[in-house]
Amino acid sequence: MHLGGTLLVLLSLALAVELGQAVVERSLGEREPLFAGALSFVLGLSALGLLGNLLLRTTLRIDLTLALLPSLLVLARILVARWRVRPQGPEAAPPLGGRARAAAALFALAAVLPMALVLRAHHPADEWETHLPLAGSIANGIVPLVHPYLPDAPFAGAFGFDLLAALAGYGTGLPLDRVFAALSTLLFLASVLGAASFLRAHAGGRLEPFALAAGLSWLLPGIFLPKPMALGLAVWVATLRLIGSAQRTGDLAVAAAAGLALGFLGLTEVALFTMTAGAIVACGFARALVERRVLGRAPLVALVAVSTAVAVALVGGGLGGGRALAWQPLLVGLGLFLALSLVRAAAGRPRPFALAAGLIALSMGGLAAPGRLHFLRVAADPEPAPSDPQLALDAQVTAWLRSHADVHDRVLTSSIYPSALGGLLTPLPTQHVDPLPPAYPPAMVDQVSGAVERALRTLDPVGLACLRIRWIVLGEQDLPRLAPEARARLAQAEPFRKVLDVERGRLRRQIYEYEGGPPPGGR
Amino acid sequence: MGLLALAVLVALAVELGRHLATRVLGEREPLAIGALAFVLGLAAAGLLGNFLLRTTMRIDVALGLLGPLLLLARLAAARWQPGAAAAPAPLDARSRALVAVLAVAVVTPMVLVLSASHFWDEWECHMPVAGSIARGVYPPVYPYLPDLPLNYHFGYDLLAAFARRLSGAPIDRVFDGLSALLFLAYFLSAGALLRRHAGGRLSPYLCAAALVWLGGLAWLRAPGADDLEPLIGRAALDGYPALPPAHNYFLQKPMALGLPLWVSVLALLTEADRRADWKVAALAGAGLGFLELSEFALFVATACGAAAWALVAPPPEGRTRGSRLLTMLVALGVALLVGAMNGGFMSNPRGHGLDVRVALRLPYFARTTADQPSPLSPYLWQLGLPVLVAPLSALWALRRRQPLALLVLAVAAGSFAIPHFLRYRHSSDVEKFFVIAAIAFALLLALAWLDLATRGRRGPAWLLSAVLGVGLTGAAPMWVRHFVRVMPEQDFGRYDPHSELDAEVARWLDQHSAPHERVLTSSIFPAAGGLLTPIPPWHGVARAQLEIHGYDPRWIAFVGDAVERALRTLDPEDLARLRIRWVVMGDEDAALVGPEARARLREPGQFRRVFQLRRGSWFRVIYEYAGAPAVAGAPAGR
């Protein structure tokens, strides 16, 4: 069943990486295979995300999106082919030797392996309550995007990662949590290599950039866990490479390419986007002031990049709902700046300086070793454990509903898992803990939240109609709380029809179909 | 400010269209350039505007970005230097003046008709859709069923919505102005197409005049034309009236935009084929893609016709079939890609897409009355002379091998065959293929006549002129009777005094309600102001209208029944189902309101009277319902 979809996903990914590789070759002249591979992967994913988002928003269908994506990627590749190959500039450092590359790969693997274990084992609250539900609903074909907890409001937040994961999950049929883990691991690797490539391009060095990038990635590893940052950081370093090249050469095409990557960042991580866009404009104009050429190339490059990015992000439905300013991008930026300074200090100097840089890199990674250990221990502690019987029951409920309900049907439940596991539209489950983004109207959030609580107690037809509920899931925690009128309603033959009743020890789930709900197929 | 923005957008769009008309099609005649620039510019604005709306979902952002995007498109087009096009020399001043006079004579009656009446399809479909898009409801919905996506073409409504949003003019006046300009563009661009492919000076425009008014007599079918049925017969397809076609010619909004666009697309397709230029082919494909959003039946007929033409018709001299096939492949590939991204018919296979059955049946076998004058009567009377002489036109086209004639023949023959073979249960639009066949055969006939006349074959040309003249004269009384006497009487919206009150209600709600808030009313008229009014039970028209547009009967029943109950009882469960925030009660509803509803209206805190209006014994009262669910942005789950 998923063979065709898997092939389409693989084809799209191959075409996207090929497109990314063409952009890297033409705009950066990068010759080191490790760097070229990482940057091609990230820029390819950005192109795939931008075009996929474009198709999804215009066709409003994920099947058409996946089917048409390869043709748009081919068209984009044909367009890039007309872009002449740039003579390699000073930042295109020679490739590493075989031994050095092996050592660099070891650095990267050492940084990535523990994170891969964490990513596989652990999903933080915002993943269970925002990203898995959102990606699941996109994979189910719910477009335009909505938060499954508030299906009557347009989605307010960053969705780049979720979109890519949904396309992969829809095509391959793999569980989304596995897709999340695999994609995040690859992105972490790409971030480390991308940061190293940035350091090497701007400060030289051989292994120092790898050591520092690996150290830097573990300075605050928790930053990487939220999905917008997982994708955002990788795209960010690729954008920095492009904008650096554009500023050096004054090439407006490269600036526009940087703008496209930055625009995808606007769909992915709003804080990183705004702070980077601000920094690009500030640097462009600062350079113009220093050079005393206000109408020079530097501000023009900055304006082209940022205006392209803003237009792309606006048209793509980005820049909404997220925090425009945050401390994490500042911290990451400072870290990269510090690393840049260290590599600059070490590169081209006698060996003791290189050794010093290595030591500093190690210390950056190891400075907060107890904290890192804590992170590994806590983050790797699955929440909830896959063996949790609650989760297993909810998985059973979700599987049943996915095979019997229309994707637009609303489900009344107190549990967060039917949405996380199957992308089902479950108005604000009472067990949710992760707050919704502030962009949602508080009156609406309060109204839905109150209606769900009342409906779970009373099964009041007006409340159910307000929430457009067609399916009701009651668990062992909900059943004792039912009010007498709700029990009386369930006891009647209509309009609540029990369709599933599963028990595991003291745990229980019942699914009712509410016949007073809207017909299937509505939105 | 809004008017200025509209003027800037129109100027940018027309400038882009002018560039394409002169550079790609090589037009040199100012009248032709003006018409093509207008149509191509509108297509560009519609395509890009819809793209921006689909991606941003916000009409103000889309309109704000549309200007820069049109400017970028114009700049990109400036770098495109296609080869020389085959266009005729400009007309001399005297001929141009005569064509202009003819244009006034051709367009004036249509302007009068357009400003005098709007038929039910406008009041119940296009004005509501356009009005709701203008208010910011996107993706588009049918305001009678706001919980379901609109899987229908809405290109005309989109352009009207842009104009309404920026100008603030009433939507019916926007329709009148837009349609009048489109009719002028249709006439002039048809004349230019005929002149381009068959030569002549004034004769192409005379043929265009006959084409735009009498391209088949399909326009005869309209509300009120039922009394003609004993004379001309009637036939049905799958329960829908097929002959005479209910989708009457130019007055039906998708056709009003679709026909001039179709003429431009034919010009682009033949130009792409002549030059074997894939860029021109891609441009033709983009135009064809917008035709998908404007008039789906014309899109299908043209796309299928172009494919058949590329496969079967002999290529022009010096060209191989392979290169023609490649050119058409590019055009159709782009058209399908654009069509898939447009929304509309192609967006939902469950609604209006692929679920078709192929079965041969002749419409007259299914005629509904026994007193038909003849089984062939529907064909003879309603498809008109061009269809009757179609075999002769086809013979001429096959002999002359003129590319445009063969393309038009493919479109015409396919359109005539489709209703006989295609069983399509989701909407009545299948009957539109008869209209298209009539118009395409008329265009073919005009090409044949011009060819005979310009080649000095005066005998056949005069004979054909006489036949056409008799045909036109014979049709004139019916035309006058229909448009002058019957149609204005059928404009229930314009002349219904209730509609004036409802227009006031719509104006008040437009200012005080959010775009996605729902209004409970029994009248169809507030929807024409762009309000979301779940199936108003006004004379049962709305349900019938929804059924022929292929909506799920379960949803029609769910919403329709809830509305009827809610209007009687104001039951909170039904109001919640319908997500009602505003309730409009009129004098006709007062008699139906039950005691429980009266009690609820008296309860403090639930229904707040916010507006009332009285004229004689007629009145309207608007209540705001406190129990309404909060809505934000796009409709549920969208």
Characterize this entry briefly:
Chain A has 20 helices and six strands. Chain A has helices at 3-27, 33-59, 62-81, 98-121, 125-139, 160-172, 176-203, 208-217, 227-249, 252-268, 270-291, 297-315, 327-346, 351-366, 369-379, 389-404, 417-422, 442-458, 461-467, 484-491, and strands spanning 146-147, 150-154, 410-412, 469-475, 496-504, 507-514. Chain A is elongated and about 80 Å long.
Characterise the protein shown here.
The complex is a heterodimer of chains A (523) and B (638). Chain A has 523 residues and is of the alpha+beta class. Chain A has 20 helices and six strands. Helix content of chain A is 66%, strand content 7%. A four-stranded mixed β-sheet of chain A has the order 3-4-6-5, sandwiched between helices. A two-stranded antiparallel sheet of chain A has the order 1-2. In chain A, helix 1 packs parallel to helix 3 and helix 10 packs antiparallel against helix 11. The longest helix of chain A has 28 residues. The mean pLDDT of chain A is 86. Chain B is mostly helical and 638 residues long. Helices cover 65% and strands 6% of the residues of chain B. Chain B is elongated. The two termini of chain B are 32 Å apart. The chains are: A alpha+beta (523), B mainly alpha (638). Chains A and B meet through helix 2, helix 3, strand 2, helix 12 and helix 18 of A and helix 2, helix 3, helix 13, helix 25 and helix 26 of B.
Defining traits:
heterodimer; A: 523 residues; four-stranded mixed beta sheet; two-stranded antiparallel sheet; elongated; B: 638 residues
The tally of beta strands of chain B, per DSSP, is 8
Strand content of chain B: 5-15%
* Percent range of helical residues of chain B: 55-70%
Sum up the overall morphology of chain B in one term: elongated
Label the structural class of chain B.
mainly alpha
